Amino acid sequence: SKLLNDFDVVVVGGGPGGYVSAIKAAQLGLKTACIESRGSLGGTCLNVGCIPSKALLQSSHHYHDIMHNFEQHGIVVDKSAVGIDVGKMLEAKAKTVTGLTGGIEHLFKKNGVTYLKGHGSISGPNEVSVALNDGGNEAVSTKNILIATGSEVTPLPPVPVDNAVGKIVDSTGALDVSKVPEKMAVIGGGVIGLEMGSVWSRLGSEVTVIEFMDRLCPAMDKELTKKFQTTLKKQGFKFQMKTKVMESEVVGEKIKLKTEKSAGGGEKEQEFDLVLVATGRRPYTEGLGLDKLGIQTDKLGRIEVDSHFRTAVPNIYAIGDCIDGPMLAHKAEEEGIAAIETIAGFAGHVNYDAIPGVIYTYPEVASVGKTEEELKEAGVNYVVGNFPFAANSRARANGSSEGFVKVLADKDTDRILGAHILGPNAGEMIAEAVLGMEYGASSEDIARTCHAHPTLSEAFKEACMDTYDKPIHF
Ligand code: FAD
Q1: CB 119 within 8 A of CB 131
Q2: What does the entry list as the binding residues for FAD (predicted)?
Q3: Which residues line ligand 1 (CB under 6 A)?
């Protein structure tokens, strides 16, 4: 139809990368369409990722608080009378998700983005054909195409996932478990596994993390993840490190896992009530027609782009989980904005040195910039500033003072190169470090900035004092 001609930008994929790009493009006056096959906007993040996981983390945190933390505040509850209604918890989660995905649809209308529900494939440099969810096909012509098709779970061949059966699940299945499993195995000690493991651990599961490497989240600062692991152990997590899963079998209500040491030997058979496979995600570009266009993917399936997110075809761009870089919603959004600004003739840019990463456990883990290992490896002359939450008055008043702030700064210039936080509200606090880094702050700049008392963020200020001088309270 005539309406579907002459777009300035067609965005394929309606996740945080795609929908943010589409809204930005429309705001810049570009005629924009967004194609999404899922039936709702928001992608992995809103539908089966960031948001539903945080809803369950919040719900399970309340339960855990009642059972374990209320007493220290002098609140007396009859714990035997406290129950869990998993169904209601899932309902609340689903309501959050539909509220937010519907909100994006509203934003599309408000900004004049054309929303096409269907699977898009790129039939030529200026044409996308859409297999509509309701049947039929539409061809859309456009000056530019932005690929934001995201990622999917990477299968782990010895442990095939079946979310419908609900015994061996991936993260999507783990968000819909209908009753608290007695014993749960989490295969893969990364962000997603530890968050979902936390949900069910707080609700009463005995959670065992099986990890191939000798440490959790290997890309993060080592000191941080070591202390994080100790914290999780105290909460009842069990860890089988340097271990790989060789075989799995569902036998009635149970799942049998055969494991051995990563280096070989030490075979074991163990039984669980729920197994979560959380070993990684891979770019999703199926049925897009990249080959015919001559658009390359690397050996991990990521679309190759230049520093302006251009593929080998100059008017086709790609951003988010389907290209290189951390698989994070805010990274996808920043790239989307930059790509659209480039298309609109502005200078779009993403600073990859200042992309925060957060693990939403309790306490939270948050990082930005270089790890100590990376600085060592690069031969950078650096200093470390540390401050424990045990010495922060607000954390003490809250009765939640586990963790610490670690700041890494250049020894010669004092410029902040990285910040790593384990502690209550770390995910909010890291924003201060990111902002500082974007402005090229020295640790002294932060240390001389007045922070309200008593707040957790004073711990960040004092870690900065420790970097260039001495903290007051430790
Ligand atoms: P996606 O969100 O994957 O969106 C791509 C969309 O494109 C999908 O909806 C898909 O249906 C659609 N699509 C694909 N191909 C086509 C096609 N050909 N035609 C039409 N539509 C198509 N990140 C964070 O930053 N914070 C978190 O707390 C966090 N928690 C997570 C928890 C879990 C359990 C999971 C799984 C992920 C989490 N992530 C988190 C990662 C985050 O979800 C992703 O990084 C983010 O969604 C990537 O955005 P995207 O737009 O690139 O891709």
Answers
A1: yes
A2: 54, 120, 149-151, 321, 327-330
A3: 12-18, 35-38, 43-45, 49-50, 53, 119-120, 148-151, 171, 192, 284, 287-288, 320-321, 327-330, 332, 360
Question: How many A from CA of 413 to the centre of ligand 1?
Answer: 39
User: Which of 50, 119, 331 has the most ligand 1 atoms within 8 A of CB, as the residue to mutate?
Assistant: 50
Which of 62, 68, 106, 453 is catalytic? The answer is 453
Q: How confident is the model at residue 403 (pLDDT cuts 50, 70, 90)?
A: very high
Q: What pLDDT does residue 1 have? A: 52
Q: Which residue's CA is minimally distant from atom 8 of ligand 1?
A: 43
Find, among 433, 364, 444, 442, the residue nearest to 404 by Cα: 364
Q: Ligand 1 atom closest to Cα of 360?
A: 28
Average pLDDT (324-347) is 98
Confidence band, pLDDT 50/70/90 cuts, at residue 221 = very high
ipTM over 0.85: yes
211 is in an annotated binding site: yes
At residue 4, the pLDDT reads: 81
The C-alpha atoms of residue 8 and residue 320 are separated, in whole angstroms, by 20
DSSP secondary structure string for all residues of 204-222 = T-EEEEE-SSSSSSTTS-H
Residues 463, 429 contacting (CB under 8 angstroms): no
CA pair distance 242, 226, nearest whole angstrom = 15
Integer-rounded Cα Rg, in Å, for the chain is 24
Question: Rounded to the nearest whole angstrom, what is the distance from the C-alpha of residue 382 to the centroid of ligand 1?
Answer: 36
| pLDDT tens digits for range 292-303 | 999 999 999 999
d(CA 217, CA 99): 32
Beta bridge partners of 187: 210, 277
Q: Which atom of ligand 1 is closest in space to residue 172's alpha carbon?
A: 34
Q: Does residue 453 carry a catalytic annotation?
A: yes
| Mean pLDDT, residues 384-401 | 97
3-state secondary structure at position 277: strand
Burial 35-51 (b: 16+ CB within 10 A, else e): bbbbebbbbbbbbbbbb
Q: What 3-state class would DSSP assign to 306?
A: coil
User: Atom of ligand 1 at shortest distance to CA of 322?
Assistant: 52
Residues in a beta bridge with 23 = none
252 annotated as ligand-binding: no
Q: What is the pTM of this model?
A: 0.97
Q: Convert the pLDDT of each residue in 191-202 to its tens digit.
A: 999 999 999 999
Please give the structure tokens belonging to residue 312.
Answer: 């080998």
Give the 3-state DSSP-derived string for 375-420, with helices as H, strands as E and coil as C: HHHCCCCEEEEEEEHHHCHHHHHHCCCCCEEEEEEECCCCEEEEEE
